[in-house]
Amino acid sequence: MKFISSYVLTAGLVLASASSAQTTAAPRSAAQTLTIKHDEGTTQVPRDPKRIVVLDEESLGWIYALGLGDRVVGIGGPRIQPGDLTANGTVKPEVLKTGFLARGPLNSPKFVGSWTAPNLETLLALKPDLILRLTWGGNQNYANLSKIAPTLGYREDAAGFWTKGLRDVARLFGRQERAEQVIKQLSDQRRESARKLLKAGVFKTYPKVLVLSPFSGGTNYVYTGIRLIDDLRALGFKDAYRPESSSVLGIGQVISDEVLLGLDKKTLVVVFAPSGSEEVARAFMQSAVGQRLKTQSVVYNLEEYSPWTGPLVSMKTTADLTTLLLNKR
C-alpha cells in the first residue's frame, strides 16, 4: 500500500506541474494549431511538433512512414524490454539497429514505460508537444496524458484505423502528399502481388484464408478485422471463418480446436504469432491440430520489435507472403 500511495502522490505532483505549465503557456493562435478529431476526442495540436512521444510501435510506424523518426524523444510499447535499455533509460544503440526499430532514424529516445500505463514523470520531463498512441475501449490515462501534451489516440478496430491516423498526423507536419504516396504505394504493391498470385493459380488452390495467432498457454486467436487478414483480403482471398462477434479488442476472437479441425483443404491457414514469439508458432505446428493443418499452412513471423499493423508492416507482409505462397506451390 505504501508503494501505491507513493505512486499516486508522484503522479499527482506530475500532473499538477503539467497543468500549471499549460496554464502559464502563451495561447496559440488558430493558425498555429490544427483541430484533430480522433478516437479519444477532439484535440487542438500545434502545427509541426518538434518533440514526439509514441506510446507503441504502431504509431512509431506512422512517424517512420512520414520521415519523422528523428523527432521522437520518447517511446513506449510492449516489445521493448528492460534489457534493451541503457542505465539512463534510453534505448540502446544496438537495439535501435534491430528489426522494425531500424526502419527509421531514432536519436536515443527515452523509454517511457508500458503503452497502457506509461511513466507520467518521465513523460513530463521529456516536454513533448505531441503524444500518439493506439487505444481501445476501456484504455486508461488519456486525461492524464492530455495534461502533459496534446494526445491523439486511435482504435485498431475503427474504420480506416491507420490510414486515418497517418493522414491526421501528416496534416500536422504538412506532409499530406507523402502520406498519400505511402497509401498509394501499398495499394499498387497489393495489386501487383494479387496479379502474381492469380497467374500462379494460388487462388484456385486456396480461395479462402484464416489468420491464426497462437499464444503461449495454448489459446489460439483468429483475426477478423485487421492484423494481416486485411492484407490477405486485399490480395484476393476470401474469409474462411468469421465469428459472430470480435471480442478481443474488437479485432479477433478465440477459436477452438474443433473449428480448426473442421477447416476444408481449400483454406489457407496463416500462422501469425506475435513479434518475437517464433517458438509459440513452432509449438502450435508441432501440436496435433498443427500437424493436421500442416499441408495447408504457412508460418509467418513478424520482424523483431514490429507492430501488428501499419503501412510499413503491410508493405513487408504483402511482399513476404506473396513470396511464401508462390514458393509453397
Describe this structure in words.
The structure is a single chain. The chain is an alpha/beta fold and 329 residues long. The protein folds into two domains: 14-178, Rossmann fold, CATH 3.40.50; 201-322, Rossmann fold, CATH 3.40.50. The chain is built from 13 helices and 13 strands. The strands form three sheets. Strands 8, 9, 10, 11, 12 and 13 form a six-stranded mixed beta sheet that branches. The chain is globular and about 55 Å long. The model is unreliable at 1-26 (pLDDT under 50).
Keywords summarizing the entry:
329 residues; alpha/beta; Rossmann fold; 2 domains; 41% helix; globular
CATH architecture of the largest domain: 3-Layer(aba) Sandwich
CA-based gyration radius:
21 Å
Q: Give me the count of strands.
A: 13
CATH-assigned homologous superfamily of the largest domain: Nitrogenase molybdenum iron protein domain
Tell me, what is the CATH class of the largest domain? Alpha Beta
Q: What kind of oligomer do you see?
A: single chain
Give the H and E element order. HEEEHEHEHEHEHHHEEHEEHEHHEH
Q: Name the shape in a single word.
A: globular
Quick summary:
The chain is α/β, with parallel strands linked by helices and 329 residues long. It contains 13 helices and 13 strands.
Strand and helix map with partners:
Blueprint: H1 2-24, E1 33-38, E2 41-46, E3 52-54, H2 57-65, E4 72-76, H3 93-96, E5 110-113, H4 120-126, E6 130-135, H5 142-148, E7 151-155, H6 161-173, H7 176-199, H8 202-205, E8 208-214, E9 220-223, H9 229-235, E10 238-239, E11 252-254, H10 257-261, E12 267-273, H11 278-286, H12 288-292, E13 297-301, H13 311-328
Parallel strand pairs: 3-4, 3-6, 4-5, 6-7, 8-10, 8-12, 12-13
Antiparallel strand pairs: 1-2, 8-9, 9-11
